[in-house]
Design goal:
71 residues, alpha+beta, three-stranded antiparallel β-sheet, 3 strands
Length: 71
């Protein structure tokens, strides 16, 4: 889904403007990334899970996925 923004938080806000029903699955009530979610920016893992301030370069790929664990 196309989205724009200079930070992960801005990109997610752009996505939530298009698909508001995704918000509660991805971020909590304070706007932090939920524990079971992971975000990659051009293959690099997000570092600021609370503030979502990681920079997103122009034309970067941002992937939001459910984190998996187990054996």
């Amino acid at each position: 889904m196309p989205a724009s923004g200079a930070t992960v938080g801005e990109v997610l806000a752009s996505i939530f403007a298009q698909r508001p029903e995704l918000r509660p699955f991805i971020v909590d009530e304070q706007g932090a990334l939920r524990a079971h979610m992971v975000v990659f920016i051009d293959g690099r893992t997000l570092t600021d899970r609370a503030g979502l301030s990681d920079a997103v370069p122009r034309d970067a790929s941002v992937h939001v996925m459910q984190a998996l664990s187990g054996g």
